[in-house]
Amino acid sequence: MREFLLGYGYLAMFYVMAVTVIYFLIFGLSIRHTLPLKRGFQYNSIKKLSGSEHVPPVSLLVPAYNEELTIKENVRSLLALNYPEYEVIVVNDGSQDDTFQVMVKEFQLKKVSSIVSDAIQTSKVRGIYHNPEYPQLYFIDKENGGKADALNAGINLSHYPLISTIDADSLLEKDALTRIARVYMENPKDTVAVGGNVRIVNSCTVEDGIVKHVTFPKKLLPALQNVEYIKAFLGGRIGWSAVNGLIIVSGAFGVFQKEKVIAVGGYRGGYPGEDMNIVIKLHRYCLENKIPYRVAFCPDAVCWTQAPDSYRILSSQRKRWGRGNLKNMVEEGFAMVFRPRYKVFGMLTLPYNILFETLNPYFRISGMLAILAYWMLNMTEWKTIVVFGLVNFLSCFILSLGALYIEETAFSRYPKLSDLNKMLFYSFLMFIGYRQIGVLWRLMGHIDFFRNNNTWGTMVRTNFNK
Fold first, then answer.
1. Cα separation of 111 and 154, whole Å?
2. How far apart are CA 319 and CA 333, in angstroms?
3. Which is the most buried residue in 120, 263, 320, 373, by most CB within 10 A?
């Protein structure tokens, strides 16, 4: 037993060292690629692009299931974007509430005949609705088939070469689409996907679908998620984008080449994690066919989304994320791991995700049990355990502070000193219980996977200003 525990201790030490080194390397890349934003180099062309005829037209796809409380504000915000040419396609995926009635009444929609592609098979479409007074807006009513199926139905109706996915509980800033288009236009031939930055709208003031006043969340769980999102998007995705290693473009806001999405069979239904699944398939398709490509991230293209504010809803969401991650790795990722033909994605991104994201709960739980065994068998002193814990905490906390540094120097969405103090406090607080519970949620998501539980889970919407 002692020899086994000693061997495990060495393994755990190398595991922690490896993940820490990779975290800091990615964070370093995030800092480096944030400097142009800090200096303001990339902001100068936004106003010019918003009225330019050279900006590519985009089809915005909004899957909606039981979204009666948020859908009106969401669509209003999308219709008010500063963008030359785009369309909004809302897909009612068999909602059981008044989503259909709210849309039809609010925008005076009438059933119309329309040419729809059959490029991707979907559940039955019951009708397509339109109002000439809102020429950019289309509404699809279909039988329930899941979020992926709703997105595929939107793709079939879409008229433009670029598609953008927007969650129905989210709001885009007026220039968000222009900013993400700027990144696409840097290399339009090779850019197959661009992800936007997702921020927490809880406690903010929303008027006519526009975030008028930004406020740090007042409730505990949204506040913790706020600093968590800042770390993930600003401290992580900027760096992964720099090496073309992004594994996910958030379903809340992303832009894709429609041709490439159709080429890989569209969004795969049947389980959560469709946003990760489509990006993995795009990487594989382009690499196997030797097509030059990139999957990029645009941190200044902002989408505001509702964060769960109750334990029940948050745990359901995180279990769903854990289940989707594991299913994607089993069914898509393992076949590409450590295979040189898949370049950075196969040699770095996927191994990192499997070892340090998918398998993370098992290492953490077994690590805690091993530490307990070391103490019970007198294999170490409590001082050594405390020092190890402090070093691990400080390294993670430094990364959180680094993400806040990027936030304050490049974006500064929370100008109040009190908000900065709150972000510092919650960046510390998230390591005391919240991250540990997150490990448990992910493990429970894995259990759901092995039980073949593919349900979406609990999700309750509220009005934006509540």
1. 16
2. 19
3. 320
Q: 465 burial class (0-12, 13-18, 19+ CB within 10 angstroms)?
A: exposed
| Tens-digit pLDDT profile for residues 241-296 | 999 999 999 989 999 999 999 999 999 987 678 999 999 999 999 999 999 999 99
Going by C-beta distance under 8 Å and a sequence separation of 6 or more, which residues neighbour residue 299?
34, 37, 197, 233, 234, 237, 238, 410, 411
Task: Please give the Cα distance from 87 to 183 (Å, whole number).
Answer: 20
Read off the tokens for 309: 């504010």
Dihedral angle over CA of 216, 164, 36, 198, nearest 10: 20
Phi (first) and psi of residue 299, to 5 degrees:
-70, -20
Q: How far apart are the first and last CA of the chain?
A: 55
Residue 13 burial class via C-beta count within 10 angstroms: exposed 0-12, middle 13-18, buried 19 and up: exposed
- How far is the C-alpha of 458 from the C-alpha of 242, rounded, in Å? 35
Of the candidates 458, 456, 461, which has an alpha carbon nearest to the alpha carbon of residue 68? Answer: 461
Q: Is 125 helix (H, G, I), strand (E, B) or coil?
A: strand
Residue 146, both tokens: 């899941």
DSSP letters for 12-65: HHHHHHHHHHHHHHHHHHHHHHHHHHHHTTTTTTHHHHHT-TTSPPEEEEEEES
Q: What is the pLDDT of residues 54-83, one digit of tens each?
A: 789 999 999 999 999 889 989 998 998 989
Here the tokens at position 130 are 């339109």
Q: What is the pLDDT of residues 85-131, one digit of tens each?
A: 999 999 999 999 999 999 999 999 999 998 889 999 999 999 999 99
Q: How many CB atoms lie within 10 A of CB 213?
A: 9
Q: Please name which of 424, 409, 397, 436 lies closest in space to residue 23, comparing C-alpha atoms.
A: 397
Give per-residue burial for 186-212: e unless 16+ CB within 10 Å, then b.
Answer: eeeeebbbbbbbbbbbbbbebeebbbe
Counting Cα atoms < 13 Å in the Cβ hemisphere of 299 gives: 31
- Pick from 109, 117, 171, 111: which is nearest to 136 by CA? 109
**Tell me, what amino acid is at 445?**
G
- Proportion of the chain above pLDDT 70, given as a percent: 93
Task: Say what the pLDDT of residue 145 is.
Answer: 93
- The answer to whether the predicted template modeling score (pTM) of the entire model surpasses 0.70 is yes
Helices (H), 40-158: 46-50, 71-79, 99-107, 147-157
Q: Tell me what pLDDT residue 32 has.
A: 87
Q: Which of 354, 296, 352 lies closest to 21 in space, CA to CA?
A: 352
Spatial CB neighbours of 123, under 8 Å, sequence gap ≥ 6: 94, 142, 143, 144, 145, 149, 153
Residue 278, CA distances (Å) to 44, 72, 174, 260 in order: 32, 28, 26, 10
